[in-house]
């Protein structure tokens, strides 16, 4: 560590600090508040595949990185066991797979908005009933909203433990990629969370 610190000091200490604050675009609210966003688009795919994607534009979620509400919701939506959306759609022979969430990239999550998407891989029969598939997805989201998260702390803690295990036992990454990732984290999180802010869940806040 002493050697590494010496190298970093030699290489980077001459880079000037211009003292400017991190740019924020929080004043540019509701970028998707346009009629073009509230539409159904049919796209002809190159491969023979049927996919239904539903996208919501939400307020910025960066500030809630210690809670990760979108990760929590995507966990519930993407559940594949009894009573899940995918389980129901599979019994109807309408869907093969379902996933939802936010990629946490700059395009999907930034200081202006956060995207939340649910994508369903449809069967040929499911494609014929894609309106009903969309209706089922919205029903499930509505159910989550009405029941609220108060009784689901156990689920949140389960997610927290799984993410902690994945963090502690992750494979070693390429050093250059790791440094690049840390530099990005330095723009987003508090100093004590540079190493863990993008992976771990820290606080359970049902109101968020």
From TrEMBL:
InterPro entries reported for this sequence: Metalloenz_LuxS/M16 (IPR011249), Peptidase_M16 (IPR050626), Peptidase_M16_C (IPR007863), Peptidase_M16_M (IPR032632)
Protein's GO biological process: proteolysis
Annotated PANTHER family: INSULIN-DEGRADING ENZYME-RELATED, NARDILYSIN
SUPFAM superfamilies in the cross-refs: LuxS/MPP-like metallohydrolase (SSF63411)
GO molecular function: metal ion binding; metallopeptidase activity
UniProt KW Hydrolase keyword: yes
Name of the coding gene: Nrdc_0
Domain Peptidase M16 C-terminal: 2-153
Residues of the Peptidase M16 middle/third domain: 167-207
Record keywords, A-Z: Hydrolase, Metal-binding, Metalloprotease, Protease, Zinc
The name this protein goes by in its record: NRDC protein
Family label: Belongs to the peptidase M16 family.
The organism of origin for this protein: Chauna torquata
């Amino acid at each position: 560590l002493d050697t590494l610190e010496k190298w970093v000091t030699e290489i980077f200490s001459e880079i000037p600090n211009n003292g400017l604050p991190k740019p924020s675009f929080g004043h540019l609210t509701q970028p998707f508040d346009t009629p073009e966003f509230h539409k159904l688009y049919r796209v002809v795919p190159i491969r023979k595949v049927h996919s239904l994607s539903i996208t919501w534009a939400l307020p910025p979620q960066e500030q809630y990185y210690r809670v990760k509400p979108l990760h929590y919701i995507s966990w519930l939506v993407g559940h594949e066991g009894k009573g899940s959306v995918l389980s129901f759609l599979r019994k109807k022979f309408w869907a093969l797979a379902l996933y939802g969430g936010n990629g946490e990239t700059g395009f999907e999550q930034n200081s202006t908005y956060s995207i939340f998407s649910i994508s369903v891989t449809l069967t040929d029969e499911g494609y014929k009933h894609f309106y009903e598939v969309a209706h089922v997805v919205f029903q499930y989201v509505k159910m989550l909203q009405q029941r609220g998260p108060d009784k689901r702390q156990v689920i949140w803690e389960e997610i927290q433990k799984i993410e902690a295990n994945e963090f502690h036992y992750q494979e070693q990454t390429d050093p250059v990629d790791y440094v690049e990732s840390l530099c990005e984290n330095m723009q987003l999180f508090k100093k004590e969370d540079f190493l863990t802010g993008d992976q771990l869940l820290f606080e359970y806040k049902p109101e968020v």
